[in-house]
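Dear Dr. H.,

I hope your travels went smoothly. While you were away I took the liberty of generating a structure for the chain from your last submission, since the lab meeting agenda had it listed for discussion. I wanted you to have the full record in hand beforehand rather than looking at slides cold. The sequence, exactly as received, is reproduced here:
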Amino acid sequence: MSVLALSTSAVPDSLNYRGLLLLDKHCGFDKVDCLSNYDIPVVNVNGIGEQIPKSVTAALNEMYKHEKFVFAVPEFTGMMSSSTKNLLDWLVVATNMNLEHGKGYPFTNKHVIILTFTPSGDEGGQRHFEQTKEIFEKLGANVTYMECFNDCWDTVIPGNEQHFEEAGKRIKNYLSYEKDNSGYFKNKYVKWNTQWKNHAN
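The corresponding predicted structure, in token form, is as follows:
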């Protein structure tokens, strides 16, 4: 299963992008990317059948290549960043103005993890989670996990991958889930139970 880790910041080398780079050592993402690489304009069309900018198409085409997603979403004034909202707005425009809510998006019926790296203390970073999760799920995502990393100007520094080891294990565990988790847990149970049966013999 191919995993895209995407910072939805419009800033090159942002805190959220660099945080993903540190997590990558533990998670082994298939691609770590940043929205700034696509130079997506603010939504500037007003109807079905409008021309979609090449930069938006390029971002969507990249997203459609992957089966699971880790989005690093900046928080601004207690909400998701405007760049994140702009990306989601373009997804709606590019898929015929939401005529079929929750269908046809790159992450429809796929597992999504939402992270935030913030320089704020415990009071900030996660305030947008409820709204962000609601919007992603409205667009068809299966949001399996969210986590906020605080004080990141102290922790998101070169060579500090070790600081994110435990978080990387948690995230990697959620990424291991299949679309239908019943099979995943059944296999885990069978493996666990077999160990006990073998031990008894």
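Two observations you may find useful: The CA atoms of residues 64 and 106 lie 5 Å apart. The chain has one domain: 3-200.

With kind regards,
E. W.
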